[in-house]
Specification:
The protein is of the alpha/beta class. The chain has helices spanning 2-11, 14-25, 49-68, 86-95, 106-115, 129-133, 150-161, 178-192, 209-219, 229-233, 235-244, 266-283, 303-309; strands at 37-44, 72-79, 100-104, 121-126, 141-145, 168-174, 197-203, 222-225, 249-251, 260-263, 298-301. Strand 1, helix 3 (49-68) and strand 2 (72-79) form a beta-alpha-beta unit. It is elongated, with a radius of gyration of 22 Å.
């Protein structure tokens, strides 16, 4: 294709150049499933277990489907490390004219949706697509959501910890993550309906996390952590501080620091996203025709941590 463009430039045939560039924007103009190999760009916001598992599930599922179809797939996987760097990663994928882009976490998805209207974009580890886009999704965007029923999470904490009116629950999250604010507002309303005091403990830089967590552990009877990527990537700090103060932590995403959780399996979430990618690339399904998919969450208790904190694990 580069040779064609160079030849057209030498001839100064602008019409032909426009046609050539249009063909590039459509991934060479080949119909779905006709190619022998595909290139998929993956932008993961940061390194932590939940996002890592989602990426692994995605690549496993899409690899399986491609092998079944006798095709090959190459993954260009990059970890942005910071929300502000997602656009740089995504733009590199767009310039390479990849066949599909995965945005793992909300900032990565938004960067991809803002960068292209022609390349299919999938999101995963995203809580609320409607709030993220403030309206209808772009036609080239769909994906999976890690949303869980907040009312059930709040009630699980109330029942398992024996929380009563007047008790204070701290909610820890990073102000740079819009999905965390959504979750905070949801659980705040649910707790306050039963007279439980809710206080937000927020930070914008990880250097602030230890100080904020220390203050929270000294003031609250329990802690709720939403599916916040920044906290999850540094949750050992929070777990150490709260456990020393005998303050139980409940997380929306699971993990080793929580005494209990009602959460989804991020590997399976990614795997479902990979199957959606296969439908788009191999079957020609339009992203707009694929609804946002969710998983059924499961209840889990950390028996060792519960014993340490003096929490009774329900018999069932």
């Amino acid at each position: 294709m580069k040779k064609i463009v160079s030849l057209v430039l030498c001839a100064a045939a602008l019409f032909a150049l426009g046609a050539a560039l249009t063909g590039c924007g459509e991934n060479g103009g080949e119909a779905a499933g006709e190619k022998d190999s595909y290139t998929v760009g993956i932008c993961q916001l940061m390194v932590h277990d939940s996002l890592d598992q989602a990426t692994q599930g995605f690549t496993d599922a899409l690899t399986d489907r491609m092998e079944e179809a006798g095709k090959e797939v190459e993954f260009l996987t990059q970890v942005a490390g910071d929300a502000n760097l997602c656009s740089t990663v995504i733009n590199s994928f767009v310039s390479q004219n990849v066949d599909l882009i995965l945005g793992n976490a909300t900032p990565a998805l938004l960067a991809a949706a803002n960068a292209t209207t022609t390349i299919p974009v999938l999101g995963t580890s995203v809580t609320d697509y409607d709030d993220t886009f403030g309206g209808p999704l772009p036609e080239n965007v769909t994906g999976t959501s890690d949303a869980v029923p907040f009312d059930e999470q709040a009630q699980m904490m109330i029942d398992s910890l024996g929380l009563v009116a007047g008790d204070q629950v701290g909610v820890l999250y990073c102000t740079n993550e819009s999905n965390s604010l959504i979750q905070y507002e949801a659980v705040k309303e649910l707790f306050e309906a039963q007279g439980i005091v809710v206080k937000a403990y927020t930070f914008s830089e990880t250097t602030e996390l230890q100080t904020v967590a220390t203050a929270m552990a000294g003031e609250c009877k329990a802690v709720y952590v939403p599916s916040d990527n920044t906290v999850a990537a540094n949750d050992t700090i929070v777990g150490t501080i709260c456990t020393e103060k005998n303050v139980p932590i409940y997380t929306s995403y699971g993990g080793a620091i929580c005494y209990a959780s009602l959460s989804i399996d991020y590997y399976q979430l990614g795997y479902e996203t990979g199957n959606m990618a296969a439908d788009i690339l191999l079957n020609g399904t339009a992203p707009a025709d694929l609804e946002i998919q969710t998983l059924t969450p499961t209840v889990s208790y950390n028996e060792d941590l519960c014993a340490q904190l003096g929490i009774q694990v329900p018999a069932e």
